[in-house]
Amino acid sequence: MSETAPVTRSQHKWLYLLVLLISLALLGAGVWQAIAVQSFSLLAAGSLGLIAALVAWPLLLALDSSTAFSCAQQAEVAERLQQISIMLDTLSEQQLLSDRAKSVAYREKDREALRRAIHEEIARRDFEAALVLTTDMEAAFGYKQESDRFRREIESRRQDDIRRQITDAVSVIDRHARGENWPDALREAERVMNLFPDHPQAQTLPQEVEHRRQSLKHQLMDQLRDAEQNNDVDSGIDIVRRLDVYLTPTEAESVRDTARNVFKQKLIQLGQQFTAALNENRTSDATRIGNEITRDYPNTRMAQEVRERLMTPSQIEPARA
User: What is the number of alpha carbons within 13 Å of residue 14 lying toward its C-beta?
Assistant: First the structure.
């Protein structure tokens, strides 16, 4: 483009000189014609041509200057575009290198972030989420040994958590069992059994509750026989009342005679205490014992006799002077 511009300007100059020479020739011939034949047409044409040539000279200079400036600008723009293209290629290559460098630089940070996330899930006892993150670490970074180590840690912590929950549940079951609240104890055992279906200890909790219940029942039956033999009426009565919720119909039949004998002895004991209170004019004690007999043994002959005597004030209250 820079070589074409001088050629174009040179052609413009030769054309302008040719027009100028023709105009001068016409002007000269017009002067001669005007003098010789008094005709001014050729003179006018030569004058107009000369004027036009003179007017065109500045325009030609301006055109040559504009053309030169335009060519220079075009050359500069082309050079800058070429430089920009080179810069873009360089930036593209650098960006690709930067992405690779970032991938390498952030790889360790991403792994550390996964490690922290795994530890946080373990601390929250969300072991399923921790296992998922461990699998992601192995898939994304290929750290199989570290992932296996995390899996062992997660499983160990999970087992510790299960043992802790079972220990807490056993404490609750033991509290219910000591209070002889067997339905609640059994519900707690079944809850833990369903919560940890793969844990051997959790699966045996309902059987352990029933075993403790049966053991206590047999212990109470032995204590009842001992109370009968030792004539410990009050203890025997308490044991019979406790046994009522444990015995099956067959078992109740086997201790029926013992229970009857205990209640009979208790009734005889209360009758003796009632008579002694009447004889000693202890009115309030007689009333209290009589009410106990009529309440606990309402269908007995002694209860009927006590009611009759309680309805006779002279039998209860001492004679007044």
Answer: 6
